[in-house]
Amino acid sequence: MFCFSRLRHLCGSLLLCTAGPLSAQQLSLADALRRADEQNPSLHAQDSTRRAAEALIEQAGVRPNPTLDVTAENFAGTGALRGVDSIETTVQASQTFERGGKRAKRLSVARREREVADHEFTVRRAEVLASTVAAYIDVLAAQERLALSTASLDLARETTDAVAARVKAAVASTAESARARAALATARADHARAESTLTQARAALATIWGGTATDVTTLAGTLRMPDELPAAETLLAKLTTHPRFALQQATISSHRASLQLAQSKNAQDITVGGGVRFLRENSDAGLVAGVSIPLPFRSQNQGNIRAARETLAGAEQATRVIDAALRASFSAAWQDLQISRSIARDLRTDALPATEEALALVRHAYAQGELPLLGVLEAQRAHTVLRREILDAETASASALVRVEALTDPAFPLTTALLSSR
Q1: Would you tell me the crossing angle of helices 373-408 and 102-168 to the nearest 10 degrees?
Q2: For residues 132 and 126, what is the distance between their CA atoms, to the nearest angstrom?
Q3: Which pLDDT does position 224 carry in this prediction?
């Protein structure tokens, strides 16, 4: 006879494995975020871009070097200029003075570019952390799917053993034994797929910090529904703090500085020189001085100015595009969160108790010889399918919550509180 108490024990074990106490060896969400923040390869690459932008500030402040000209005249000619007796030598130093504040504007552009690089790093870091939390959720879900498949496998083994005993006692047919063995084979295949999914999820999480699946053992936390959520308006108000807005503002400032630099290049630089001219014939010497100013008959920089102005206008328009895109992403994530929470709550509150009651009744009827094994297997399958649907809904809810917080608060306080709760 099938042991109904064993069924209750297996179901209880499944609940414990998804909500039991945490061990000291488990990887917490905070640990995963710290590893990603410190070891993610793309963040290291982005940090190199920031340092390169810092070096360009130094380069932008460089002033033009002075030049030294040495000119020899009136030698190796004909007549009186034959040979070097009449040679005249001029030694002159000259310095170019930039006009229009070019150096200050170059520095301004370089500093704005450094700010852009800083904000790009912030945006990339937020993306990496969001990917880490999402991957962490995937591993937790894979852990719970494996626990569910393990309980289902144990139940299938228990059923197979019970049917074998009934066949041996000549109170059940061999056809029932075949059906039980088929169900057991299906449960084994499902368990193998769950193990593979967990390994892949662990590898995806570890890859974020350049590790492997062996770096990720059991994770801390459980997937469950948050009791309450902040109002959508409260979260939406935080959308303006998204790092993409700060990046866009820095980009606008950079383009504005580039326009000012392009306009400053219309101011012509002045080159001032001075030196000494030596006369070979009588050993006399005299001072030489000069000023060089380009004649601006036509502008040489109008195209660059126009391009800089159009680029700035485009960047200013892009702010509204970013705002619309972020609001659309928030709306989609919020809707997914609300729907998945509602589905999970209804299934767990209403459908699961009814399914468990039906399974218990079917088990009892089978034990009394009132129902065939096929009804038992169908009831078990329905119970397993429902548990998976609940897990899928709770996983979707947690993933949607991650998407919402990635848009409104990159510190992920709601998700962290959810996963750290017991």
Answers
A1: 170
A2: 10
A3: 75
Q: What is the pTM of this model?
A: 0.79
Low-confidence ranges of the chain (pLDDT < 70): 1-25, 76-77, 79-85, 280-282, 420-422
Which secondary structure element, helix H or strand E, spans residue 290, and what is its range? strand 285-292
pLDDT given for residue 124 in this prediction: 94
Q: Which residues pair with 275 in a beta bridge?
A: 92, 288
Cα-flanking dihedrals φ and ψ of residue 72, to 5°?
-115, 130
Q: Are 403 and 336 in contact (CB under 8 A)?
A: yes
The candidate with the shortest Cα–Cα distance to 293, out of 106, 105, 97, is: 97
- What are the boundaries of each domain within the chain? 4-8+24-63+98-266+301-420
With CA atoms as reference, report the closest residue to 122 among 251, 219, 282. 251
Q: Are 7 and 363 in contact (CB under 8 A)?
A: yes
State residue 281's pLDDT score. Answer: 65
Q: In the CATH scheme, what is the homologous superfamily, with its name and number, of domain 4-8+24-63+98-266+301-420?
A: Outer membrane efflux proteins (OEP) (1.20.1600.10)
**Closest-CA residue to 134 (of 329, 409, 400, 417):** 400
Contact 202, 213 (CB under 8 A): yes
d(C-alpha 322, C-alpha 327), whole Å: 9
Do 123 and 247 form a contact (C-beta atoms < 8 A)?
yes
Question: Which of 213, 23, 196 shows the shortest CA–CA distance to 135?
Answer: 213
Q: What share of the chain is helix, strand, coil (3-state, %, to 5)?
A: 70, 10, 20
How far apart are the C-alpha atoms of 349 and 352, rounded to whole Å?
A: 7
Q: Burial-class residue 233 by CB neighbours within 10 Å (0-12, 13-18, 19+).
A: exposed
